């Protein structure tokens, strides 16, 4: 049985592969977005947090659930429009880690089960920063591409601290992300960069209509994991949990 799709083994392999070449190794899911709030880039934020107390082996960011909306039709997708719909649900989940690979030799999917003697972890307060977890995404059939950002999302985690109107991302940040998303580097026989609008590229235009509008396998696996693991985990019935893995899911049973 493969626990959680072999994530722990894959993450430990990554950690060991980069143990001698990376200052920090971050382990997050594909729907986890970590936005630096203490510095202008990841490296400076991680350095600031690791140096905030002695003997830190890894730092741990909580995950803050958000809901958001985006176009179901891939041809209408706009990163700018999607980011503008983010709203924090003020619900926190078990977070993810950033490791100093000198002091961590193995990890589980959320945190290491053991670290070197004399070392410790630093838990980042969620009013300082947290992972933006794209937990509840609505795929809107009616959504069409908009040229203007509707709203700038506010960073509003589940913290007892005084709320602020601090943005999750600034309008300039979102514009830059949208421009980066829409650009593509094309290399000719002589390496020559050429920036084009992604949506206008013929090869992209051919692919977009073929992308799925429903994710049946994802829906089936999510329901299976809920039935076999999460409903026991969140209700405190941990003694009833069996090793969670996709081989325990009879996928055909969940299709309808």
Automatic annotation (TrEMBL):
| Signal peptide stretch | none
Instruction: Cite the EC number.
Output: 2.4.1.-
How is this protein positioned relative to the membrane?
Single-pass membrane protein
Q: Which Pfam families does this UniProt record tie to the protein? A: Glyco_transf_92
Places the protein is found: Membrane
Question: Does the UniProt entry include the keyword Magnesium?
Answer: no
Predominant localisation class:
membrane
Q: Which UniProt keywords apply?
A: Glycosyltransferase, Membrane, Transferase, Transmembrane, Transmembrane helix
**MF-aspect GO terms:** glycosyltransferase activity
User: What Gene Ontology cellular-component terms does the record carry?
Assistant: membrane
Looking at its record, which EC class is this enzyme?
A: transferase
Q: Into which family does the record put it?
A: Belongs to the glycosyltransferase 92 family.
What PANTHER family does the annotation carry?
A: GLYCOSYLTRANSFERASE FAMILY 92 PROTEIN
- The name under which this protein is listed is Glycosyltransferase family 92 protein
Q: Which organism is it from?
A: Cylicostephanus goldi
């Amino acid at each position: 049985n493969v626990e959680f799709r072999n994530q722990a083994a894959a993450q430990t392999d990554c950690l060991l592969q980069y143990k001698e070449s990376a200052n920090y190794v971050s382990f997050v899911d594909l729907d986890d977005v970590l936005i630096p709030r203490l510095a202008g880039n990841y490296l400076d934020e991680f350095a600031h947090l690791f140096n905030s107390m002695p003997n830190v082996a890894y730092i741990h960011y909580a995950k803050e659930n958000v809901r958001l909306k985006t176009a179901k039709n891939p041809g209408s997708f706009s990163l700018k429009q999607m980011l503008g719909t983010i709203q924090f649900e003020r619900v926190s989940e078990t977070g993810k880690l950033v490791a100093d690979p000198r002091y961590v030799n193995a990890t589980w999917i959320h945190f290491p089960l053991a670290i070197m003697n004399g070392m410790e972890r630093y838990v980042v307060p969620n009013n300082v920063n947290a992972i933006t977890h794209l937990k509840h995404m609505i795929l809107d059939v009616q959504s069409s591409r908009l040229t203007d950002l509707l709203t700038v999302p506010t960073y509003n985690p589940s913290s007892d601290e005084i709320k602020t109107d601090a943005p999750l991302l600034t309008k300039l940040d979102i514009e830059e992300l949208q421009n980066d998303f829409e650009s593509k580097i094309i290399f000719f026989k002589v390496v020559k960069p050429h920036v084009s609008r992604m949506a206008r590229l013929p090869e992209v235009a051919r692919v977009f209509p073929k992308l799925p509008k429903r994710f049946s396998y994802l829906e089936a696996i999510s329901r299976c994991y809920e039935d076999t693991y999460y409903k026991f985990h969140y209700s405190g019935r941990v003694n009833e949990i069996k090793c969670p893995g996709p081989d325990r899911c009879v996928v055909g049973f969940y299709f309808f």
